[in-house]
């Protein structure tokens, strides 16, 4: 069943063809959305919500998007900055006094957003269940010594990004990041994206499917470097079965446990590509969007082991900014073209064993619709 549902403006027919091809090859179920000038121009879905291919992927099917969630968390920080409630150039300790310990008194909010804070690991925590204790995790981060001088190097903060930004948001607003996102971002936009999923939505979830030849013990880890070695990892290792668990859904892990579909991901992120508004709803001023694409750091990322350009919350790739999640989901925005493209799926691929060009093919197909 590779018949697609939804709709697509005729000039973006290449996107429809790309999704159909992906469902005919690597994907089990997936959704794709494109927004232009803050309005939807593509909203497509198809395939199956389960590995057994017995349950169809529907319009309101949700799945875990893993680190694509970081785009949502970063947006929350930019909303607060635009409202004058958060200074990206201020020390984190100005909002979170305990954070000044262990030489971090001059570590800036901007450093946290750009993965240059020097806190990429959680060495004192070892089990996924430890992640569900917000106070324990944030207290450990407040006491931790940076691995490098903040701002001088970058290293992808896979899990810590969400706790660091989330605690800053909590200190500023008195609300958890998931609650702030629901009330100040998703709610006004009508976006079906959740950081902390209610049991009422469990029936809509398409569980993540491990890569071919892997089981649900498949783990997220730092990628191999060009020399074939991997950065030594300390802390928690997340498996597919963890990301599919009820405990994971109920928690708020703002770096990694968002649930949504391409429609909701594209809608939310199109706010930044369209100078602060989408669907007639304004969340930021035009100037408030600019940190999303202004480069903060360029150089070798110590965790990803590859050259990276980081902005205040996003990876920067030429004219586009955004980020993707473990297994394949992604979102990319182009502020010059006012274009946002999102791809969300349930079939994970292991990039070390198999090239994964699914999302990039969708993005290139979307650009062809602009020509």
Automatic annotation (TrEMBL):
<dbReference type="InterPro" id="IPR052907">
    <property type="entry name" value="Beta-lactamase/esterase"/>
</dbReference>
<dbReference type="InterPro" id="IPR001466">
    <property type="entry name" value="Beta-lactam-related"/>
</dbReference>
<keyword id="KW-0378">Hydrolase</keyword>
<feature type="domain" description="Beta-lactamase-related">
    <location>
        <begin position="28"/>
        <end position="358"/>
    </location>
</feature>
<dbReference type="Pfam" id="PF00144">
    <property type="entry name" value="Beta-lactamase"/>
</dbReference>
<protein>
    <submittedName>
        <fullName>Serine hydrolase domain-containing protein</fullName>
    </submittedName>
</protein>
<dbReference type="InterPro" id="IPR012338">
    <property type="entry name" value="Beta-lactam/transpept-like"/>
</dbReference>
<feature type="region of interest" description="Disordered">
    <location>
        <begin position="209"/>
        <end position="232"/>
    </location>
</feature>
<dbReference type="GO" id="GO:0016787">
    <property type="term" value="F:hydrolase activity"/>
</dbReference>
């Amino acid at each position: 069943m590779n018949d697609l549902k939804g709709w697509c403006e005729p000039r973006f027919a290449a996107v429809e063809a790309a999704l159909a091809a992906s469902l005919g090859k690597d994907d089990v179920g997936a959704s794709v959305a494109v927004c232009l000038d803050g309005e939807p121009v593509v909203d497509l879905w198809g395939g199956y919500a389960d590995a057994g291919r017995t349950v169809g992927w529907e319009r309101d099917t949700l799945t875990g998007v893993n680190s694509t969630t970081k785009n949502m968390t970063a947006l929350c920080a930019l909303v607060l900055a635009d409202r004058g409630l958060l200074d990206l150039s201020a020390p984190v300790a100005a909002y979170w006094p305990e954070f000044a310990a262990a030489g971090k008194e001059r570590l800036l909010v901007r450093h946290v957003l750009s993965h240059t804070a020097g806190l990429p690991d959680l060495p004192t925590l070892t089990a996924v269940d430890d992640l569900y204790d917000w106070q324990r995790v944030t207290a450990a981060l407040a006491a931790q010594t940076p691995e490098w001088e903040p701002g001088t190097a970058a290293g992808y903060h896979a899990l810590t990004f969400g706790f660091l930004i989330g605690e800053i948001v909590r200190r500023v607003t008195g609300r958890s990041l998931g609650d702030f996102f629901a009330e100040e971002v998703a709610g006004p936009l009508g976006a079906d994206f959740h950081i902390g999923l209610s049991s009422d939505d469990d029936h809509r979830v398409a569980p993540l499917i491990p890569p071919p030849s892997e089981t649900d013990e498949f783990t997220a880890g730092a990628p191999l470097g060009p020399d074939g070695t991997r950065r030594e990892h300390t802390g928690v290792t997340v498996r597919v079965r963890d990301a599919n668990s009820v405990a994971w859904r109920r928690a708020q892990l703002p770096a990694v446990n968002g649930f949504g579909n391409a429609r909701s991901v594209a809608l939310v992120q199109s706010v930044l590509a369209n100078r602060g508004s989408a669907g007639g709803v304004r969340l930021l001023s035009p100037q408030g969007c600019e940190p999303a694409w202004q480069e903060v750091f360029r150089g070798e990322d110590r965790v990803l082991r590859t050259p990276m350009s980081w902005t205040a919350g996003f990876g920067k790739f030429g004219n586009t900014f955004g980020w993707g999640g473990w297994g394949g989901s992604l979102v990319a925005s182009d502020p010059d073209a006012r274009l946002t493209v999102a791809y969300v799926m349930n079939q994970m691929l292991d990039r070390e064993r198999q090239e994964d060009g699914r999302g990039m093919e969708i993005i290139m197909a979307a650009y062809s619709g602009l020509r």
